[in-house]
Amino acid sequence: MLDIMSAKLATGIKNIVPEHPASYAVLKFAIEVVLNVVFIMGLTLAVSLLTGRTGEAIQILISFALLRQVSGGAHLKSGTACVLFTTTLFTLLSFIEVSPLFILLMNGISLIVVLWLAPIGIERQTRIPRTHWPKLRIIAALLVTANIFIASPAIAASFMAQSISLIVARKEVKTLR
């Protein structure tokens, strides 16, 4: 679905502005990324309005995106699969209510995983030179550490899910070698 939409939009742009310096492939990819984010946010917020968990959904959308930007993680094969999986995941995470001790445990596990693996799987998605990747790990660790003080169950669950994504990405990177 996203692939078809981004292809039609990229074709339209190239037809209207054929001298645009971006290639069709670059336009299509950029449009697919934007559509992916828009659909994840839109669907997650729409479902959260129906479930009454909008505050939690917003926390999850923001915290997951921030941590993912600096830590990397696994990717699904298609944009549509990503939208469906992520929207379902975020909706389920918005219902997590745990004790302060369990929040601390999730934050601790997430912190260990982030310090161990971040950043991973960002080679083809960032312009940040490898020399600065250790700084990304520090930023990721600081984000997780912040929730030790915030103590949000939604953020802890979001960080835990993103940490699991790092473990999955590690397995993907190993199989590519």
TrEMBL record:
<keyword id="KW-0378">Hydrolase</keyword>
<feature type="transmembrane region" description="Helical">
    <location>
        <begin position="138"/>
        <end position="161"/>
    </location>
</feature>
<protein>
    <submittedName>
        <fullName>Accessory regulator AgrB</fullName>
    </submittedName>
</protein>
<dbReference type="InterPro" id="IPR006741">
    <property type="entry name" value="AgrB"/>
</dbReference>
<dbReference type="Pfam" id="PF04647">
    <property type="entry name" value="AgrB"/>
</dbReference>
<keyword id="KW-1133">Transmembrane helix</keyword>
<keyword id="KW-1003">Cell membrane</keyword>
<feature type="transmembrane region" description="Helical">
    <location>
        <begin position="101"/>
        <end position="118"/>
    </location>
</feature>
<feature type="transmembrane region" description="Helical">
    <location>
        <begin position="74"/>
        <end position="95"/>
    </location>
</feature>
<feature type="transmembrane region" description="Helical">
    <location>
        <begin position="33"/>
        <end position="53"/>
    </location>
</feature>
<keyword id="KW-0472">Membrane</keyword>
<keyword id="KW-0673">Quorum sensing</keyword>
<keyword id="KW-0812">Transmembrane</keyword>
<keyword id="KW-0645">Protease</keyword>
